[in-house]
Design goal:
2 copies of one chain form a homodimer. By secondary structure, the first copy, chain A, is of the alpha/beta class. The first copy, chain A, has 2 domains: about 325 residues, Zn peptidases (Aminopeptidase); about 140 residues, Alpha-Beta Plaits, CATH 3.30.70.360. The first copy, chain A, is about 35% helix and about 20% strand.
Amino acid sequence: MKHRILLVIALSTLFASHMIAQTDAVSAARSFRQKNEAKLLREFSELLSMPNVATNVTDIRKNAEYIRQLLENKGMKARLLTIDDPEAPPAVFGEYLVPGATKTVVFYAHYDGQPTDPADWTVTEPWKPVLLTNAAEQGGKKIEFPMAGGSIEPNWRIYGRSASDDKAGVFTILTAFASLKAAGIEPSINLKFYFEGEEEAGSANLKAFLIKYKDLLKADAWIICDGPVHQSGRKLVSFGVRGVTSAELTVYGANRELHSGHYGNWSPNPGERLVKLLSSMKDANGRVLIGDWYKDVEPLGDLELKAIADAPKYDDELKAQLGLAKTENGGRQLLDVLNEPSLNINGMKTGNVGSLARNVIPSRAEVVLGLRLVKGNDVRRQLEKLRRHIEAQGFYVINREPTTDERLKHPLIAKFIPEDAGYNAQRTAMDLPISLAVIGAVSTARTQMPVTLPTMGGSLPLSIITETLGDPALITVPIANYDNNQHAADENIRIGNLWDGIEIYASLMTLTVSGRQ
Amino acid sequence: MKHRILLVIALSTLFASHMIAQTDAVSAARSFRQKNEAKLLREFSELLSMPNVATNVTDIRKNAEYIRQLLENKGMKARLLTIDDPEAPPAVFGEYLVPGATKTVVFYAHYDGQPTDPADWTVTEPWKPVLLTNAAEQGGKKIEFPMAGGSIEPNWRIYGRSASDDKAGVFTILTAFASLKAAGIEPSINLKFYFEGEEEAGSANLKAFLIKYKDLLKADAWIICDGPVHQSGRKLVSFGVRGVTSAELTVYGANRELHSGHYGNWSPNPGERLVKLLSSMKDANGRVLIGDWYKDVEPLGDLELKAIADAPKYDDELKAQLGLAKTENGGRQLLDVLNEPSLNINGMKTGNVGSLARNVIPSRAEVVLGLRLVKGNDVRRQLEKLRRHIEAQGFYVINREPTTDERLKHPLIAKFIPEDAGYNAQRTAMDLPISLAVIGAVSTARTQMPVTLPTMGGSLPLSIITETLGDPALITVPIANYDNNQHAADENIRIGNLWDGIEIYASLMTLTVSGRQ
């Protein structure tokens, strides 16, 4: 019921008088983009050509300074925010205050990207962006970046690390602002841009930044430009994110690699120990068997359940595209199971495979376990359930390499290193005035209601923001195509999604919130 | 009973008149080595500095030609044996016929080495041999190779790929021959040297070589210089080897890597599928659960059981050295369980660990399974048991990448690629006259009875020799220290073992077989 009311309000805003400003903004963004397509692609490609793994301090600072300069060039007051830790990537902050504006919105994106093994990339190297006529899997061919005036197809894609996650966000926000400036359209709200430099590294310092710059970052809402739109291609507005953390787990055999002939059947294989341990954590259906794993989950409300029920059903198409005969959890819908905590083998290794494989009993086996959390879960508590499970399987659990004495005393030893970073899930109410205004602004830009979801599957450090900044509304408006190979090799963005994004964000920068908030 | 007779015969040969030649040979080898220690180390180091992975055709040919030249220089008729396949590494063949000799022995070693990841090496790079004052784990320090006349300690070690496995074999055989030549001592038997170039690649072409050069390689016995001596340091004579093969197994998730947040709980994780599958193959005690795995094993005879019972008990020392609180198979003795077939995780990988770990659901998980076989097992039969087990776990088993249709039809798919090479186990009777003569020759060189074993844990393609060349006696006389990191990073050989080896092989080249054979 409540959801239907939400829908009616959102659609009615399409025809409200204050929407004229938004329609103008969308047109301005479109015409700006149409005049500058080739130039915009080159600008974006230049941004993508800068290596941006958060742990590389030199690389990441170059990115930050480059983006700060872009902001200045586009007429924004911009600076780098830093904290005491010299290893912490700076945040890029931009501010544009509008005389008479009563609302302030922080637009968030992150400029760092996931680490990657260049050897895994097939289309290009991670930081050598290239243009293709379509997705590589769809037979896309490499072409030159076009000169000014050349025609550009929306199905073209740019391949490169962070093409979608999340330099697309940085670029979209910047360009939406530039398009308003060019058309002489004043935003309806005070704009603050916050571009983080270590989201993919777990946002370990975000809290310290927010505490230090609490006053500067005060706002009614944060709008997050990160993640993919709905798989059907329909735009998405999401009111929550899963939390995330991870743990590294190492189990041991002998203190050195051994010849598998001279010692096989006698010296324990750490790979065998690891597969037994991991096998105990989930059933064949993907259900987590660790005690209390699902216990503290906060159930969804009626509004949230209705939003999920109303979202396009896309599982069958997805299965066909991904080559899946069967999914986990007894075939329950994707949008449904995303509201539960997960446990994932991010990576696992013992010895070598392929051309480096050898006839040895390896001395250690390692796994990185990724955890996603939902509302009600707590990072520390969830990791502790995992640790206790490992102990319950008979392992002596430590947080460093075992000593010789420990090796001789304990048949089963596990080194368990929980991630330092990581954060809880977050959800904003879907019926706040600002929530409705955001849905309206996206509808205006696309003349279609977006899919609305209580929770995206992915994670953003939003809980850190609410815990630190006194609960602003946090709403995610993603722009990337869903098949963007985010976090993987051959990451890409569809050009049409980039163009749509500019219009959507121009619309968001001219939104008006009805009533009280 | 039979074993005690064997022992008495062997020891009595120490005092037989024809042993005088052997004692002279041992003295000659020792004095030759003492005069040339520094030079010998440099020669050996030069041999180790040549990359020797069998799949690198250019590298491997350089090794072969270099060794052929060494043989010529030491006064042997030498040539490279080749077969039609231009990718097949050549064998180096040397021949020295002794007028009046009635017996012919082929001395076997291999000059190729295991593939290795240079990043795993801590002491040096694989093909940059260095000299240490002791094992690295024992605090050995890197020192320069000494100049002529400098003192050399037996506990020094040379580190480098194939330092023990098996350029030590090539070098030992060559040098033993050179020492006899230098002293003017004529061997008692016709000598043939056969140095293989693809043993670590599974000896895929050995059979073709043996068939082509059947007449050239006709002999009463083959003496194999490969593998480590007993862990106690006592020399070893082994009358059999385990067979070996392997299989690559790949299981699948979606057809591309997926974001673990947007798809976690829904898209199957191939790592999870692999751990469940592997976990079904062995129990927590290391016992293989695959049907009929142990069924066709040919039991050991009384003589073999006695030899094992008489061997030094060394398990406790080994466990202490390797940092093991518990071994597999309920703590049964190492020498006992080596007479059973094994199944080993040689290497396993999905996604990435360490600094390249990412929040993804990987698209595939791979494992290389190593199989060791004992007398009675058959390579094809053992692999088929494994394949059937995978099928019995519900997998659709194929020998190539799955098609899209197959992915959509079968929830569980396994690509199963058995190794092309691989061979069965082999055993020579311990009481043949030539067997006793070899035990005698080793005893003479060390003035101590060697440990005798029916089977070494490691593998050599000896069954291919017996199947092709009409059943010559095949006896392995290893020389390497057991803690040589064979097949692993930081491979090394103890200098004292190299020196002992030269004397043992000089003794073997002057052995006399009593009675009929």
